[in-house]
Structure formats: C-alpha cells, structure tokens
Amino acid sequence: MAELLDGRLLAKDVEDRLQQVVAAGLERAGRPPGLAVLRVGDDPASGVYVANKEKASARVGIASHGAHLPAGSSAATVLAEIQRLNADPAVDGILLQLPLPAGLAEGPLLNAIDPGKDADGLHPCNLGRLLKGEPGPRSCTPAGVMALLARARVPLEGARAVVVGRSILVGQPMALMLQAANATVTVAHSRSRDLAALCREADVLVVAAGRPRLIGAEHVKPGAVVVDVGIHRLPPSAADGPSGRGGLCGDVRFEEVEPLVAAITPVPGGVGPMTVTMLLVNTVASWRAAFAPPVAGAGGEPAAADPLADLLP
Ligand code: NAD
Question: Atom of ligand 1 at shortest distance to CA of 274?
C-alpha cells in the first residue's frame, strides 16, 4: 500500500510552528503579521477560499486586512486599493483573489502588488528570483508540494521528475523548484506526444493539468511518487442525497494508481491544505524580515534553530 502524503497533517504541523514564530516575535514587532486578501465581485467559490484563508490566518495569529470590492469596480479602483495596501505598514502579505470579474485584466493588477508583500509568490520579480535561485516568496502550491516531498523524505537529487502542466501558477514554478532540488525535470503539456510514456519515466510525477482523472495506471512507473495538484468537483450523484454537492476528485485516478506507487497525495487533503499554509509562511516570513534578521544568535549564544528553515528558500 502506498504511503499517503497527508497535507492536512503537515499543514497542522507548519501552523504550529508559525504560531510559535508569531508569538516569539510579537513583542519586538509591536504588531501581529497582517495578510490582506483582496476580493473583487461575488464569485461564490472565491468567497469560500477567502474565508478559509482568513480562518487559517487567525489560527496562527495573523491579522486579516481583507477588502471586498463590488463586481463593477474599475481597474483604477482596484489598483488604488492595492496601492493603499502596499503602503499600509500593518500589511505584510497581499493576495488578489482570482478569478476577477470579466473585464478586469489580472496581469497589471498582480504586477502592482509590492513584490515584498507578494504572499502568492507570483509577482514577476519573485518568479525571477525563483529562476535565479534567490530568496523571496515562493509560489504557494508548488512550494507546498516541495514541503510534502521533503516531509516524506522523497529523494530528489538525480531523480527523474515529470511535471504535467506548464501554467505560471503551478507547472512552471514546480519544474523550477524540482530542478533547484537537483531533479532532472521534464515538463509535459497539452501538446506533448505520448503522455503515458513520458510519465512512466518519472520517479516523481506531479500532475497539474486541470483534467479530472487524466492520469491512470498506464502513466505510472511502479514505485514512483505521485503528487496530484488537480482538484475538481464532481456532479452530484444519487448517492449524495437530495442536497448533495458531489464529491471531489483530482487529475489522477487514485484507486488505479495508489496500488502501484510508493507514495501519493489524496484529493482532498493533499496539496490543497499546503497551498493555504504556504501563504501563511510567506506572510510570516515577510513580517519577520521587516523587524528582525531571520535568526540571530546574540552575544555569542548559538543561534536558535529557525522553525521555518525547511520551508524557506
Ligand atoms: P491551467 O489550466 O492554467 O494549466 C493546465 C496545464 O495543463 C496547461 O499547461 C496545459 O498545457 C496542461 N494540460 C492540459 N491538458 C493536458 C493534457 N491532456 N495532457 C497534458 N497536459 C495537459 O491550470 P492550473 O492553474 O495550473 O491548475 C491545474 C489544476 O490544479 C487545476 O485542477 C486546479 O484547480 C488545480 N490547482 C489546485 C491547487 C491546490 O491548492 N490544490 C492550486 C492551484 C491549482
């Protein structure tokens, strides 16, 4: 039976460490870390995601400075709100919740976020830092995948890794992070030929195609490690009852792949919880950097171990 890469368990562990870091720095900082989730319009799924992020923030002691602008807001209004948050000294992390209402281009608005407060790690400056191997906030979903792999001690040095998907949100930064960990990385995408043969080369297969149940037994090498980033709501079935919302599935046919592999993430409960947690990590790291060097050993004392060391680039 495959090892389950349990994102909920790891998220809880990282939240405990964040709580400790926040409590230890509060007096010196004089204020808690602040995260602003900026929502525009009334996309119902976004409402749930924003609430989850704010709940997770509260659990570790991060103050929420969220703003909710009406659906008809102009680009200038959203930009002004981003600039206000950039200038607010109580805000360490800013996240523009996507999707935006039709008619608002996300690119210029995302680029307007101060790169030092880029909780999502998606600002071009921070993607550039990832490319160059420099410190900076990392994209949350792939950083969460790296944390799951590290926790399970999956060897990456020299391993063959295949990433299915080449989005800026997941696939591209994922490939860069695996490469930085000395894996040999192949990026597959919708125009790749013979996806199954490519995937079977992988010691570590990360799937972020956004295609429900795309990957099955024919795509995996026995003993591989499989990370399923995809998340999809299935249409309600009779088994869900009258008020049923349908279950969730990933890009991987779990029941087919699990018996073949060494380790696999479940959906839900794998990558998803770690994405939110890495948002908190980026916010706390930015807060800590604003008032103190990351870890200091004063007066010849040995430096205390940094509880976040394994999570930061
Ligand atoms: P996207 O649609 O932007 O990109 C999908 C990528 O997959 C594209 O590069 C495309 O070329 C590739 N692709 C599509 N069909 C393919 C096929 N048949 N064969 C090979 N490659 C194919 O999606 P995204 O934003 O990268 O997200 C991917 C999935 O991950 C979605 O299901 C999304 O909901 C999920 N997601 C989950 C989390 C999380 O926290 N769990 C976070 C972000 C995204």
Answer: 40
Residues with CB under 6 A from ligand 1: 141, 164-167, 169-171, 188-190, 192, 195, 208-211, 214, 229-232, 271-272, 275
Q: Identify the structural domains of the chain with CATH numbers, from first to last.
A: 29-114 (3.40.50.10860), 140-272 (3.40.50.720)
User: Residue 108 and residue 124: Cα distance in Å, rounded?
Assistant: 11
Identify the band that residue 297 occupies on the pLDDT scale cut at 50, 70 and 90: low
For the whole model, what pTM was predicted? 0.95
Please report the pLDDT score of residue 301 as a whole number. Answer: 61
Q: Which of 7-21, 38-52, 123-137, 190-204 has the lowest mean pLDDT?
A: 38-52
pLDDT for 235-246, tens place per residue? 887 776 666 677
CA atoms of 246 and 223, how far apart (whole Å): 31
